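Today's session is about reading a structure prediction critically. Students often jump straight to the picture, but the first step is always the sequence itself: look for stretches that repeat, for charged clusters, for runs of hydrophobic residues. Only then move on to the predicted structure, which in these notes is written as discrete structure tokens rather than atom positions. Here is the chain we will use throughout the hour.
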Amino acid sequence: MDVKLTTAQQQCLTQEVEGGKINLLANHSKVVGEGEYLLSGDVCIMQQDMRLLTPEIYYHQAKQIFDTQGGVLLQNNDQRISARHAEFNSINLTAELKEVDYFIRDSEINGGADRLFLSEQQSELNRMTFSTCSPEQRDWEIVAKSAKLDHEEGMGTFKGVSLRFKDVPILYLPWAKLPLNNDRRTGLLIPGFSYSNNTGIDLSIPYYINIAPQMDATLTPRYLQEHGLMLGAEFRYLSPNSRGEFEGFYLPDDDLRNSDRGLIDYTHQTRVGKNWRFNSHLKHVTDSQYYEDFASSSFITSTPYLKSTINFQGVGANWQFFAGVNDYQVLSQTITPATEPYQTLPEIDFNWFEYNYAKQFSYGINSELVNFYKEDAVGAWRSDVTPWVEKQWSNAWGFIKPKLQYRSTHYQFDDNRTDLNRNLPIASFDTGLTFEKSLADGGFRTLEPRLFYVYAPDRNQSDIPIFDSRELTFGAAMLFQTNRFSGADRQSDMNQVSAALTHRSFNQSGDELWNLTLGQIKYFDDQQVQINNQPEDLTKSPLIIEYNHFLTRYWNAGLSLHYDQQQSEIERGLFRVQRKGADNSVFNFAYRFRRNQLEQFDTSFVIPIKDQHRLIARWNYSTRDNKTIEALFGYERKNCCWAFRLMARHYLTDELGQSNNGIYAEIQLNGLGSIGRNPRRILKQTIAGYQEAF
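Below is the predicted structure for this chain, in token form.
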């Protein structure tokens, strides 16, 4: 019902009213009978934020009933209601409206009803509708034959409920009880649906349980055509100092694997005082193929092992503390007992440091104590203590920073072998300059040379087992490190200098236009310490070349090369280009190369078509293996109040080359939720720059 307002009534909508007074404005008033009065002409009744506007209103004094003619508009800060006819009873504080339209302000929620009966605590509606679409384009709406709304409880009981999309009924419920506000309520959530080769039809129906204001749970029966019926459960809790989440799935007697299968994932955090925190993250699956069968992410399916940890952390102004235990469940078939990670039972770290910023002088000590354990393998207690001191001289155009460390590592084994010790000093000298040149157009360029020298003497470490050390991947960051290994089982012998030169260009606004970095390490001695105890005799590292260009506001590109001068060939390479448009269009292309290991193309795009439509695709292909790692193609349509997504996906599920194909479909209704299996998480993980419709 569209109520036409006069200029005076439009002004009345914004007029302020003092306190709880009732103000009544009208052009004419007259007595039409005994105890009956008529107000007409720009009628406006105001009380606090409530406004009632109508051409005419009758007042029956004996019954204390107000009766409007010619349409009525009711408005407050929360909602706006218009009706063809309204009757108000001031004795029992009720109202009856016919041919009603409503609009919730500060939102897109709107609808209508044939009849609306209002009382102080409850409302009743006949033939009501609900949508976030505009009345002119009613693409979807919820229709109910009747509804009873309990405002005190914040719940509504609906009968004969149907969800219509493009005038086609897609869901019908004979009865439903739904919340009227943002309070959490126990009840069914919108089902999820998808299809893949591994699961067949995948249908889940979650049921939400509101246990307490800071505690809830969700039970999710899930039907998997190829496997059977799975039950999922999620439990969440929150307190002033703690939070946690438990997630579990159980599938009895899997039809495909002929065994019981499941997952447990539990996360907990507790703040203990001002500086201390307790953390735990426990994960376990019944078998190594669980993620291959049930996970939708190729990143998860390629996880070599699950890590569970319990730890206690503290942090202060000049200290850090960590104590915890770690355990691992191996999932990858390529991990042998010899390469399986060690449990740490426990690991204790303590770092203390003192920074004098005025004198630019710092010193401290880093310490670690770890007990390594693995069944049928040698274990040990390892202590690693490194005191250090550092002095710096710096200003706007350069810096000099020498640093001295002394690393002392001790091993006590759990078999009969003799304890081992490794002690050595580590000295480094870091210096850099910044030269700046102004350009005629107001921009400027910088030239930033940097030298880093490090010395650590050779210590024989061939008798030390490898518990957690790995050789770090060579890259730009390795130019300025004092150890080329992670962990403490190997401390590299180093007599080398790194040289790097960075050239940057900026426009007159200070935005960086491009940068180019060249860097390389010069080795003065052979590298005796290695993971495999086989020395290397490199005289220099691969030459690092990195170039980044910010072409426009929307385009950027980058090139990274590691050039092996001794072999006269590229060891590693990465070329990437990206475009992100103002219309949320995206284009990504990358080529990755690692000699004798990897060669891949990775391209993806999001292409808007006439504002409402988008095509989405990604193709990640290994030219070395002649195999597609992941490919997806999707279509999106976004309207003012809904979005539709359809996506087909092919991806590898394990290192042996097994693959899976899936189809995901979703209708997302703005303000209500989505129907189908949500593909947006996959799109965000696989396509850099993807943004969803709502």
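Discussion point for the tutorial: Residues 7-14 form the longest helix (8 residues).
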